[in-house]
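Worked example 3. Consider a protein that binds pyridoxal-5'-phosphate.
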Amino acid sequence: MDKKQLFTPGPTEVPQETLLESAKPVIHHRKQVFKELFRETTENLKYVFASEKSDVHILSSTGTGAMEAAVLNFTSPGDSAAVIVSGKFGERWRDLCKSFDVNAEIIEYEWGDYCKPDDVRKVIKEKNIKAVFATLVETSTGTVNPIRELAEVTSQAGVLLVVDAVSGLGCDRLEMDKWDVDVVVSGSQKALMTPPGLGFVCVNSKAKDALQENKRKNYYWNLKKSQKSLGKMQTPYTSPVNLIKGLNNSLKMIISEGMEAVWGRHQKLSGGAQAGIEEMGLEIFSKSPAAGLTAVKIPSPDKIGESFTKHCEKKYGVVLAGGQAHLKGKIFRIAHMGYYDEMDVVKSLAAIEATLNDLGERNVLGCGVKAALEKFSGR
Ligand SMILES: *Cc1c(COP(=O)(O)O)cnc(C)c1O
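Given these inputs, the predicted complex is written out as structure tokens:
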């Protein structure tokens, strides 16, 4: 039997009801029936972004498209931006800035480390910085960054804070209004429990003003145009209607659980995963582990390396992610973002133990599972 379960930090498992919603007949994006769906979906999204005052733009793209839209719409050529780089996705901000003629002041940390807001404060003081590009959860290393503290720095300085929360939104706490975060980008296929294909850019009032001053003439990724359409409960071009239907179902699930409970559940899942991993004698990679995924150093990487995730998928149907770039074969990543519960974490740990045993690395069968169950039981 070929039964697989995704434990990858995007795409993630999607609830069946969401898939079924997406399978319903196509509706027309200029008719009343769509406007009602769109109004409800954008309102529900605002709840997840913890923002009442923002505009949420829904884009037909993956998360990277939303990142590109943010760079294009909130910077002009020749502007300077501070870019926090401590993994693959910080590098993506850096590369996007370079592509669109933004002077990127790189604030760099070792992969696995997290951002120190004081470093950003210094750069803002010394240079004429228009915007700070940051990452809530650096998925390549399983690290959560202190966005709340960073937002204190940027609001004091009157600088825009643009946060990539593609993998963080809906698992690691992020409160746009309360923290004063200006722009947050995300995507459908991580904690929002929806298939890949939707990007989001959530824009607060400070950023709406910045948008009006933007000098670029981009055509498709044009949030000024999109803002006008939002007033009519539409997108400028054809909307990805079926993905939006599915998304709205998943958002309703999040709302009925409640945001605090959703954040709490992810905190609990990561606690269980970490306890299990440590009990197996393995090491957590990150200095500041995220709630939505756990990155783990592969023991004896020269021997096991990339065969670890391959074996785990082939033999146990547990699809883990490997490392990216120089971490290939050095770490594996277990996602528990979105549609995951305690028993899912237990299953992933069981498969990891079995894989370690099969590959002749160590016999810790049942150890991690026991530690996780104990952690979950709270006793
Ligand atoms: C997944 C992800 C993205 C976007 O990747 P896409 O493949 O374009 O969806 C961006 N940033 C982070 C932190 C991510 O985890």
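Take a moment to read the result before moving on. Residues 5-9+258-376 form a domain with the Aspartate Aminotransferase, domain 1 fold (CATH 3.90.1150.10). The mean pLDDT is 98.
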